[in-house]
């Protein structure tokens, strides 16, 4: 599964919430000028929107890629070269369980792409997802912004974050 979105900048990722998955975190960042230019290019955006991910510290064991001036397909190459064959170090396609295996426990490999608005999380995440499919692997793609896009209540950051977290957990 490839997930793009913003992680709590203070608490990071609570790995205990996904105990059976192998989680790989990759933090994307871009220069402030690059972020503004990307946001200005979005449907009349004003370059001022910020999702809070810009100040997130990179924690030990997390990967980090600068997307400034780098096209999405090259960012994908940089990420995958850092991850040593994610999701399977041997690079073998996942054939899935045998037909008579019964229910399969939840788990798998999760790549979480984090970073501020405009650093390329969605574009890069979707390309990583497509490459996994082309390699014959079972894959899913979740854009955290999209699973909280339609919000019925107050639009404060904490409420939207809780909604997104509940929706991703439900997935």
Features of the shown structure:
15% strand; five-stranded parallel β-sheet; 30% helix; 5 helices; globular; alpha/beta; 171 residues
Please, could you describe this protein's structure?
- With 171 residues, this protein is an alpha/beta fold.
- It contains five helices and five strands.
- Strands 3-2-4-1-5 form a five-stranded parallel sheet.
- Strand 2 (21-29), helix 1 (32-40) and strand 3 form a beta-alpha-beta unit.
What is the element string, with H for helices and E for strands? Answer: EEHEHEHEHH
Q: Segments where pLDDT lies below 50 for 5+ residues?
A: 49-55, 89-98
Estimated structural class: alpha/beta
Counting DSSP E segments of at least 2 residues, the number of strands comes to 5
Q: End-to-end distance, in Å? A: 11 Å
Strand content: 15-25%
Q: Count the DSSP helices.
A: 5
Outline the secondary-structure elements.
Blueprint: E1 2-4, E2 21-29, H1 32-40, E3 63-66, H2 72-82, E4 108-114, H3 121-134, E5 141-143, H4 144-147, H5 157-170
Parallel strand pairs: 1-4, 1-5, 2-3, 2-4
Helix pairs in contact: 2-3
Give a quick rundown of the structure.
With 171 residues, this protein is α/β, with parallel strands linked by helices. It contains five helices and five strands; from the N terminus they run E-E-H-E-H-E-H-E-H-H.
